[in-house]
Design brief:
With 1264 residues, the protein is of the alpha+beta class. Helices cover 29% and strands 21% of the residues. Helix 2 runs antiparallel to helix 5, helix 13 runs antiparallel to helix 14 and helix 14 runs antiparallel to helix 15. 58% of the residues are buried. It comes from Clavelina lepadiformis (Light-bulb sea squirt). Belongs to the xanthine dehydrogenase family.
């Protein structure tokens, strides 16, 4: 029976939706209809966790799910709890919200509600989780700001085995909390009804929920007979990977069908229905793990599949179905089930028969065509033979929530004496769509002896022959053989293995993370230097803060989306939008051809980039049109229907090497710069080495995507609310493009959900898109880019390629160097500006009296790079460390000691010609060496490496020097005091990006005015109240904004003091004093802009040590410990500053180890444009032990309020992680006689490191 709507509960409130849009996600409905915008959206793929809510299905418990993948219709009859439902500032915050806020676990705040809801859901499932359970719970979340440590600490306070120090910290925090914390839990009995059938349609598609298996079969038969296009839906998680739009007319929801959710435990097997989720499967197998050798191993492996919110709704059957539809999909589930001897039951819609199949093989389920078949259940036999050995492996680009490079599962039955293999199963995933079972290897091993070198060598050769024709990748080939070797070693008697060989058996096991934070404060200047959390962290944790995309749209608001080119280096032949203009919601399309004549087609005020390409396409992802529609979803759908054809398509120039080969450069206005006399120094150098460093790009991964809302104003101008670090640049761009004066352009920004430089110059693209759409429609328009657009269009960190030559003496003291620096400036010449800063950035922690640098700006077909946290400084500081490592390797010296000998000291001259003063780098280096016991740890690492052939450790120390100039930034500040109650409001020209600028501003104001912090509010940034303020960047915005604020406070104090003096020393309250000032006509508002300081500059110093462990056979690794000592002068807020150190360092870990931007060499398209392919660090990629110390008693006489810049500099020390990994690789190569120097692979991914080892499995893998 057709029904015209669905109903469900959100936070105990019932909602009814008539004629629901079948294709819409619950997240889209949630954010737009009831306006519950605390739940965020970033990737739309279930890969970042910002969208997590708690879902309670009928007669089930509460579970965390990704609302961006949850179809709206699937929540019919369910209860959803969002961040708004568990606590607020009005009703009191929940303990989870309060703890993550007070622990400093919320910086920009955009990801925070997702973390909170995952923890809430876990506590609903398990009131007494362990710390390990809690750390495992956040595998589906990304936070770019914090480095995760404070988030994990806050959450582990809820553990039944909480560490005593965490418990004490938690108790201290809760004693100080002003609001009563509570947990607003909905009654579990709210939904206990039986599942009812459901059929709804939106005129395009129909959603059907069969009430029973019989009903499902009947529906399928009827629809098949009518040749309808059908999609079975359980968790809908495949849509996060495969986003191509298919014309499904019917969606059959089987996620809640009782028969398909059944779990039956029999004497000889466990049977799981097709809709049993991966989480339920894990729990079931763990519960019965003592009944089968396979169950525990399968369950442990399944925990590595996707993430908790995905596994909570994704079914094992959906994973198999995805493998059938997409043969290249690396299905762990298929590998595991095949090795565990599982059988699946399949219903044939055409014949009505139910057949039992294996997973792989000629008659396997993975070869079935599921357009006419349905998986019903899987049976896992109980294999309890103690002689049975079962092991599985999954090697990933990242520690968790990632596809596998290669997955493998092995099962072997041993004879009673365990010295002979009676049978064996060898299963692989990731070696090509057609390969799964190594059957020839299995046959050979049957009856063979273990502990036999002959058996191992023959098996490796046979396996090599089986797989070398199915995979073209050297890494996957070597890895598959390495995993088999691991399994074979596990079958052997350890006492019969050679020295150190048994280290190859196990995989790396990550311990529970921990860390320390050490700093000092100065109570005499409180609240300056006082450690406190972000002033808005509580309401960030409750989802009450508003970002641009959270504002309620007006009734006439429109939405726009780019149409992007999918090739580079071509010309536009035609843009066909004939289908688009007839689609629902279509309003208008703007192209380069119909671009308004009165508007300049520029996306930046420099006029060097087109807003919309008219003829030529420079890069894949370049906007060619703007679609305007009634809703965001409609604008995206319409944009996808626009067809662009091209002509004169040329091979794209993508890399620096491509540019050199094609002689593709921008006019070089960058003159070489040098100090000393490098030519003479090289002639006299005792030793000279040369090398190359190739450093790729990095996406900023701000959690809040690019967004701007624009509307026309009554005076012929525009009003914008935009997520930008650079209001001034957007104002200039719109003024330039529309030919209107700046005073007709109003721009506001309250806060950003992360920036890291990505919302500087390229945010003008979003600003122009929204403003242009508003101009042509005369209606408010919102432009909100998705992740793919942000990654493909808006640019990323500039790639660098550097050729160096360095001269030094026998002691490793460097005397001369020369370097050619090539910057990949992409498709727009404005990126050349970053190369202009090379002279400042190249002056790293090491002194060299004779230097020469030449810079080359490469013109390529990638989006114009933009500034990204420590632009240039990250790469050039690393260059210094890499060169030192090269010198030490050449001389056979310890690089740690040699680095110290080359460090800067007071009295030396920098590359920019400045005299070094107040230099802390040697002090920091020595303190770290002593406090962290580096020398003894080096010996421990050496001993470990001698004892373990297939596990290695590496330790590295890296210093950094980040040069800061206070010469270009200026920020206007307005401070007003209200006469009625003495409260203070501040508006300033800096932008809150999560770096804590508003918190520091409030602290300084409270100190300088002598009022409680609670009286101060910091309002949004506006180009009206803070005119002419420069962009927020360079790590000095907080510093310079506070300088302007101090000026405001001095002005106000100079007005207030005479009134106070006339009160004859009478004790009066602040409120009474301000009332008196008002009565006597004192101006209680002041504005001030601190002047730039043309000659003022200083350096920020830091030192970090990383110790890593590396699995030689797989390339997997983990950071066992990181110690960071940083000089930030007198910290304005140690809690905020340590958060910046940790966050920057972890972002650097991503740059050096997991984040890789790859382009299709034929089309120029970015391949890694999703969370499936692009892998920022997650909670288990951070150091196991993470220690941070701020240098004590180190005031900065050259900075504002004796502080130093902190947002960017710490990322420069993260090179120590990559070098430590390289040390581990050097150790394994040394074992095999490979002693030649080799360049650091960048990024040092699992794959790149393994390739650098140069393993030859057929000769290197042995038993002795």
């Amino acid at each position: 029976m057709m029904k015209n709507g669905i109903s469900f509960y959100v936070n105990n409130e019932k909602f009814a939706v008539e004629y629901p849009d079948i294709g819409i996600s619950f997240n889209s409905w949630l954010r737009s209809q009831p306006g519950l915008t605390g739940t965020k959206i970033t990737c739309g793929e279930g890969g970042c966790g910002s969208c997590v809510v708690a879902l309670q299905r009928p007669s089930e418990g509460i579970k965390a799910v990704n609302s961006c993948l949850l179809p709206l219709c699937s929540v019919d009859g369910c209860h959803v709890i969002t961040i708004e439902g568990i606590g607020s500032q009005r009703e009191g915050f929940s303990n989870i919200q309060s703890r993550i806020a007070k622990f400093g676990g919320s910086q920009c705040g955009y990801c925070t509600p997702g973390f909170v809801m995952s923890m809430y859901s876990l506590l609903e499932e398990d009131e007494h989780p362990t710390q390990h359970t809690i750390e495992d719970n956040f595998d589906g979340h990304i936070c770019r700001c914090t480095g995760y440590r404070p988030i994990l600490d806050a959450m582990k306070c809820f553990a039944c085995d909480t560490d005593s120090s965490l418990k004490k910290k938690c108790e201290d925090i809760e004693d100080l909390m002003s609001l009563k914390c509570h947990s607003k839990r909905p009654p579990k009995s709210l939904i206990t009804v039986n599942i009812q059938s459901l059929t709804v349609t939106d005129g395009v598609a129909t959603w059907i929920r069969p009430a029973s298996l019989g009903d499902l079969k009947s529906q399928l038969r009827n629809l098949q007979q009518e040749h309808k296009c059908i999609k079975l839906v359980c968790g809908n998680t495949a849509s996060g990977i495969y986003k191509s739009k298919s014309n499904f007319g019917y969606f059959l929801d089987i996620g809640q069908m009782e028969e398909l959710r059944a779990i039956n435990n029999y004497d000889d097997c466990i049977e799981l229905g097709a809709s049993v989720t991966l989480s339920e499967m894990i729990k079931t197998l763990l519960k019965h793990s003592d009944e089968s050798v396979t169950f525990g191993a399968v369950a442990s492996h399944l925990k590595k599949v996707a993430s908790v919110p995905i596994r909570n709704v994704a079914s094992w059957a959906g994973n198999i179905a995805m493998k059938c539809q997409h043969p290249d999909f690396p299905s762990d589930v298929c590998v595991l089930l095949e090795a565990a001897k599982a059988k699946v039951k399949v219903y044939d819609v055409c014949t009505g028969r139910i057949v039992t199949q294996s997973v792989f093989g000629s008659d396997g389920a993975t070869l079935s065509h599921f357009n006419d078949k349905v998986l019903l259940s899987v049976t896992l036999p109980k294999l309890d033979d103690i002689k049975l050995k079962f092991k599985t492996f999954k090697v990933m680009p990242r520690s968790q929530n990632s596809y596998a490079y290669v997955a493998a599962a092995f099962r072997a039955g041993l004879a009673s004496d365990e010295d002979r293999i009676e049978n064996c199963v060898v299963v692989f995933g990731g070696l090509g769509s057609a390969f799964a079972r190594a059957q020839q290897t299995e046959c050979y091993l049957k009856g063979k002896q273990t502990n036999s070198m002959e058996t191992l060598k023959n098996a490796l050769n046979i396996l090599s022959d089986e797989i070398k024709n199915v995979t073209l990748e050297k890494y996957e080939y070597n890895l598959a053989l390495g995993l088999f070797y691991k399994f074979y070693l596990s079958l052997c008697d350890p006492s019969k293995l050679g020295y150190g060989i048994s280290s190859g058996i196990g995989s790396l096991v990550r311990p529970l993370s921990k860390g320390t934070q050490t700093y000092e404060t100065d109570p005499e200047i409180y609240p300056i230097s006082q450690a406190m959390s972000n002033i808005s962290s509580d309401i960030q944790a409750s989802g009450e803060v508003q970002y641009v995309g959270d504002e309620t749209p007006t009734t006439d608001e429109l939405f726009c989306t780019f149409v992007l080119s999918d090739v580079a280096n071509a010309e536009i032949k035609n843009i066909d939008y004939s289908i688009a203009k007839d689609m629902p919601g279509f309003v208008k399309i703007i192209t380069g051809e119909n671009f308004p004549m009165e508007v300049k087609n520029h996306s930046h005020y420099d006029g060097l980039s087109e807003c919309l390409a008219k003829y030529c396409i420079q890069f894949a992802g370049q906007p060619v049109a703007i679609v305007i529609a009634e809703s965001r979803e409609q604008s995206k759908q319409i944009a996808e229907s626009v067809k662009v054809t091209y002509k004169n398509v040329q091979k794209p120039v993508l890399s620096v090497q491509d540019a050199i080969e094609n002689n593709s450069f921008y006019p070089n206005n960058l003159k070489p710069f040098q100090m000393g006399n490098p030519d003479v120094a090289f002639k006299n150098a005792e030793h000279v080495v040369s090398g190359e460093v190739d450093l790729g790009s990095q996406y900023h991964f701000y959690m809040e995507n690019q967004i701007c809302r624009a509307e026309c104003t009554e005076n012929g101008g525009f009003k914008l609310n935009v997520a930008t670090q650079a209001q001034l640049w957007i104002q200039k761009t719109i003024s330039h493009s529309f030919g209107i004066p700046s005073n007709k352009i109003e721009i506001t920004t309250k806060r950003l959900g992360g920036g890291f430089g990505g919302k500087l110059c390229n945010s003008t693209i979003a600003g122009m898109a929204a403003t242009l759409a508003a101009f042509v429609t005369r209606r408010p328009v919102c432009f909100h880019a998705d992740l793919k657009t942000c990654m493909s269009t808006f640019g990323s960190r500039m790639p660098y390629f550097m050729k160096y030559k360095i001269g030094f003496n026998a002691n490793g003291i460097v005397n001369c160097l020369s370097c050619d620096v090539y910057g990949n400036c992409g498709s727009a010449p404005r990126a050349v500006r970053e190369l202009a800063g090379v002279q400042r950035a190249a002056d790293s922690a090491y002194f060299c009296p004779n230097q020469l640098y030449k810079c080359y700006a490469c013109k390529t077909n990638i989006p114009a790079p933009t500034w990204c946290r420590a632009p240039g400084s990250l790469q050039l500081n690393a260059l210094g460390d890499i060169m030192m490592e090269h010198v030490a390797s050449y001389l056979g010296q310890d690089p740690i000691g040699m680095k110290f000998a080359n460090l800067f000291k007071n009295g030396q001259i920098t590359l920019q010609g400045n005299l070094v003063t107040h230099c802390q780098i040697r002090n920091l280096y020595q303190n770290l060496m002593e406090s962290c016991g580096i020398r003894s740890r080096q010996e421990t690492v050496k001993s470990f490496n001698e004892k373990n052939r297939w596990k290695k450790r590496g330790l590295s120390v890296s210093p950094s020097k980040f040069n800061v100039k206070l010469t270009w930034q200026k920020y206007a500040v307005l401070v007003s005091i209200y006469a009625f109650d003495g409260s203070v409001v501040i508006s300033h020209g800096g932008i809150e990006c999560g770096q804590g600028i508003n918190t520091k501003v409030a602290q300084v104001a409270a100190c300088k005015l002598g009022v409680p912090l609670e009286l101060i509010t910091v309002q949004r940034t506006s180009n009206i109240s803070a005119a002419n303020s420069t962009s927020t960047g360079g790590s000095t915005s907080s510093e310079m904004t506070c300088a302007s604020l101090v000026g405001c406070c001095e002005i106000l104090n100079s007005r207030i003091e005479p009134i106070k003096a006339r009160m004859n020393g009478k004790e009066v309250t602040w409120k009474e004093l301000i009332a008196k000032c008002y009565a006597e006509d004192v101006d209680l508002s002041a504005t001030y802009t601190s002047p730039t300081l043309p000659s003022q500059s200083y350096a920020t110093y830091g030192v970090a040590c990383a110790e890593v462990e590396y699995d030689v056979l797989t390339g997997e690794n983990q950071i066992l410990r990181a110690d960071i000592m940083f000089d930030c002068g007198i910290s304005m807020n140690p809690s905020v500053d340590i958060g910046q150190v940790e966050g920057a360092f972890v972002m650097g870990i991503g740059f050096w180890t997991t984040e890789e931007m790859k382009y299709d060499t034929n089309t120029g398209q970015l391949v890694t444009d999703s969370t499936w392919e692009y892998k920022p660090p997650t909670t288990k990629d951070i150091p196991v032990e993470f220690n941070v110390e701020l240098l004590k008693n180190a005031p900065n006489p050259l900075g504002v309020l004796r502080t130093k810049a902190i947002g960017e500099p710490p990322i420069c020390t993260s090179i120590c992680v990559a070098i430590a990994l390289k040390r581990a690789v050097e150790e394994t190569k040394r074992d095999r006689g490979l002693n030649e120097y080799f360049p650091l692979p960048t990024p040092a991914t699992v794959k790149a490191l393994h390739n650098a080892c140069e393993l030859d499995p057929l000769s290197d893998f042995n038993l002795s």
